Amino acid sequence: MTIGTVAVPRMALAGRMTNVALAVVLSIALGTGAAAFAVGTGWDRWVATVHGAAGFGLLLIVPWKWPIVRRGTRRRGGVWAAPAAVFAFLVVTSLAAGAAHSTGLLRTTGPLTAMQVHVGAALLAVPFAIWHVLARPVRLRRTDLSRRTLLRAGGIAAGSLALYGISAGAIDLTGAPGSKRRSTGSFDGSATPTVADDLPVTQWLFDRVPAINSASWRLMVVEADERRELMLEALDAMREPVEATIDCTGGWYSTQTWEGARLDRLIDTAGARSVVVSSETGYSRRFPARDAPRLWLATRVGGLPLQLEHGFPARLVAPGRRGFWWVKWVTRIERSDEPWWWQSPFPLR
Q1: Which residues contact 78 (CB under 8 A, 6 or more apart)?
Q2: Which regions in the chain score pLDDT beneath 70?
Q3: Residues 295-328: tens digit of each pLDDT
Q4: Residue 194 shares a structural domain with residue 174
Q5: Burial letters for 290-320: b for 16+ Cβ neighbours within 10 Å, e otherwise?
C-alpha cells in the first residue's frame, strides 16, 4: 500500500492503527473510571455505561493486538517482552476484577475487594501504558480520518456498547448479585438500618481512625471576622433528620437516616465562594458556599450516636456526593474566598 510516494506495508499500517485504537480506548477507560469515582448523581449511569463499554472495547481489540505483540517480542526479545507482559497482565487483571465486581460473583479476594483490585491494577498499568507510547510513538496522519478508519472505529464503539448491553441484560435476567447494584456500580453495604452493626469501615488512602475525647472536642467555626467554638452538646442540640445515601468508591453504598446540623446554621456563607471542612486527621474538602444548606454535620445515624470508626463525634453528610466528600471527625469549618474547585479532584492523603 502507498501513501504519497512512500510504500507502507499493509500489516505495519494495521499495527499502527491498532496501537492508536488501543491508546484511545485505554484513555477512555481510565478517564471514565476516574469520573465514576467523582460523580455521585446525575451522570453516574452514563459514565458507568461508557466505562463498561470501554472494557469490552479492549477485548475487541485483542485479536488485532496479539499478532503485533508476538512480532514485537520476536524482534526485541526479553527487554521488550518483560514490561509488555506486565502491562498485559495488569490490564487483564483489571478487566477480570471489574467483571467480578459487576456481576457480584466475586466481591472480595483475601483482604481486598474486587473493586480495589480493579482500580489498583488499572493505576499500576498507567506507567506501563506511558512507556509503551513513548517506546513506540505513533504519529497521527490525515489519512487516519479516512472513511474506512471512521467506520472501523464506529464498529468497535457499537460492538462495545452492544456487548455491554448484552452483559447487563444477562446479569439482570439471571438475577446475579450484580443486578442489585446502584447506578454507580456499588452494592448495598448494610443489611439492617442500624449502622453500628454492619456499615463497612473505610478510610480514604492513608487516613487513620484518630483517638478523640468527646469531653474536650470542639468544633472551630471560622468566619470573616470571627472565630468561635462549639461543644458537642451544642451541636447535637441543633440536629435535624436527613435521609441520605453514602456511596463509597470502595464499591458499597448505604441509605441511612442521619441527624445533624445544617452547615448554613453553623456558618455564615454570605459573600463567600466556598466552605472548607477539615478533619482531626488533616483530611479536608472544599465545597461551594451555595451548597451549605444541603450539607449536614451529623452526630447520629440510625437513631444512635456515631461510632468512632464512622466519624464520631461529628462527620459531614453530603447527599449526592461520593463517600470521600463525607469528611469524618470534623473539627473545623471555614468560609473561604477561594473557588470550591481550587483543590485536587481527589484527596492526596
Answers
A1: none
A2: 1-16, 40-42, 68-69, 72-80, 138, 140-145, 190-198
A3: 999 999 999 999 999 999 999 999 999 999 999 9
A4: no
A5: ebbebbbbbbbbbeebbebebbbbbbbbbbe
Assigned domain for 131 exists: yes
Each residue of 88-109: b (16+ CB within 10 Å) or e?
bebbebbbebbbbbbbbeebee
User: What DSSP designation does 215 have?
Assistant: T
Percentages helix, strand, coil for the chain (3-state, rounded to 5) are 50, 20, 30
How far out from the chain centre does Cα 211 lie?
29
67 vs 19: CA distance, rounded Å: 12
| Residue 227 to residue 67: CA distance in whole angstroms | 67
Who contacts 181 (Cβ-Cβ below 8 Å, separation ≥6)?
A: 102, 104, 187
Residues 160 and 202 in one domain: no
For the chain, the maximum distance between any two Cα atoms, rounded to a whole number of angstroms, is 82
136 shares its domain with 168: yes
Residues 203-262: tens digit of each pLDDT:
887 788 999 998 899 999 999 888 999 999 999 999 999 999 999 888 889 999 999 999
Residue of 250, 342, 328, 252 whose CA lies nearest to 289: 342
Residues, the chain, total?
349
**Number of Cβ atoms within 10 Å of the Cβ of 229:** 12
pLDDT at site 13: 41
For the entire predicted model, the pTM comes to: 0.81
- On whether both 196 and 313 belong to a single domain, the answer is yes
Is residue 222 within 8 Å of 333, Cβ to Cβ?
A: yes
Handedness of CA 314, 320, 323, 327 (dihedral sign): negative
Which residues is 259 bridged to in the sheet? 241, 300
The radius of gyration of the chain's CA atoms, rounded to the nearest angstrom, is: 25
